[in-house]
Amino acid sequence: MGDNLDQPLVLRSDLDHVATLTLNRPAARNALSEPMLDALAARLDEVDADPTVHVVVLTGAGPAFCAGHDLREVRSNEEPEFRERLFARCSNVMMQLTRLRRPVIAQVAGVATAAGCQLVASCDLAVAGESSRFATPGVNIGLFCSTPMVALTRTVAPKHALEMLLTGDMIDATEAHRIGLINRVVPDPRLADATAELARTIASKSPMTVALGKAAYWKQRDLPLADAYAHTSRVMVDNLATNDAAEGIGAFLDKRSPTWIGS
């Protein structure tokens, strides 16, 4: 399915220190073609290097959030080298989301399936409209969702992840919330506003502290318990030495609003 060459594959808009990135292949249900992955990676680098951006929102244009990989592209390129490159690109984008200094919130309307579900699971937070749906349906077409499994099993409990992977069944937003794939379910007309409210809340915090905390979260979660405590203890000591920690503690004790310095 062709793309609109007059429009970027990933749009960006900024408001109140929040950068919204919109996957922009609505006719293809925002499928993650190789050009789309490259465009998303470039946009993520762009916002991470922009000091005015404190939070990133990721959403999709049209009726779907993201339907996963572009199967037409995959079928038309049978060379193993292309397919290895494609899945490596996709994996790198998913890891890029976790390594980004800014928190990333998925704003999900419509379906998020296969690598699209992986995209939701790879974001730090997710807000979904009540009509949204989620699935890892690769098993239905003989192509197990092996790479989406990585993000899914690090987000929801093993048995919930395996049920999604083994059945390929679609789940609704209420069930996605129950198993921990998303943070909030809101009425569809409220989706953009609810996501913006969450983004603004986080954007009001010290961006340096949020970046430090996000990095510490992703680092410690895969460490053994003692190593996780050792790492986060070092982070706490380093955090206490920052200007924003001094300002925040002082503001709390003085009963005033903090003025973040950013260092």
From TrEMBL:
Keywords: Fatty acid metabolism, Lipid metabolism, Lyase, Transit peptide. Coiled coil: none annotated. GO terms for biological process: fatty acid metabolic process. It comes from the Bacteria. Belongs to the enoyl-CoA hydratase/isomerase family. May play a role in fatty acid biosynthesis and insulin sensitivity. NCBIfam families: PRK08139.1 (NF006008). This is Enoyl-CoA hydratase domain-containing protein 3, mitochondrial. It comes from Candidatus Neomicrothrix parvicella RN1. The lineage of its organism: Bacteria, Bacillati, Actinomycetota, Acidimicrobiia, Acidimicrobiales.
